[in-house]
Amino acid sequence: MYVPHHFATDEADALIARLARRWAGVLITVDADGTPTGTHMPILWDAERKIATGHIARPNPQWKLGDGRGLLVLSGAEAYVTPSWYPSKRENGKTVPTWNYEAVHLSGRVEWFEDAMRLEAVVRDLSAFHEHDRAEPWSIGEAPRAYIDALLRGIVGVTLHVDRVEAKRKLSQNKSEPDFNGVERGLAASGDALEGEVAALMRETRAVSDDPDGN
């Protein structure tokens, strides 16, 4: 992924954890002919070991491609940015549309696995990750054992041993203060939930850049 310096982040692990809580990742691998295959799936991120883990349906043929290299794409909130929000448009007209977004690309060695205990651990940990802060969190122990065993036979696990992390927060950081503020206000006023979220992320990014010591 192309990441200009003004869109880079020093907090990639935090960004990965935040995106993984809200959105599924897309695991992309290629076959012997170079044809890409992608599967959307929730993931667990081990920041210390740089490992992403998940599972796919056994009928999904992607796992039969075997171990090799893979790319896991995580995306977050995103929004179209109209030039009409830039004060500079009225000054010189030198503006064009763009897109604001957050994304992370994780590259590494793909390992598929079928061990039942390991698969159950993935399902249990994924459930805990997404359920722990709910009023009535569900756990794998609430389902009948025979039912869980049958479902485990229907999935295949995957681990991505990550050796390259590319994290990007494209939130108008390269714009002048008036243009940045124009975009933030335009997104915030749109009434669209995702656009409002991007506006909030922009405010957060600007607050950090205004306080380089993190105080």
UniProtKB/TrEMBL annotation:
Transmembrane segments: none annotated. PANTHER family: PROTEASE SYNTHASE AND SPORULATION PROTEIN PAI 2. It comes from Terricaulis silvestris. The keyword Hydrolase applies. The lineage of its organism: Bacteria, Pseudomonadati, Pseudomonadota, Alphaproteobacteria, Caulobacterales. It holds the Pfam family FMN_bind_2. The gene is paiB. One of its GO terms (biological process) is proteolysis. This is Protease synthase and sporulation protein PAI 2. InterPro entries: Split_barrel_FMN-bd (IPR012349), TR_PAI2-type (IPR007396). Keywords: Hydrolase, Protease. GO terms for molecular function: peptidase activity.
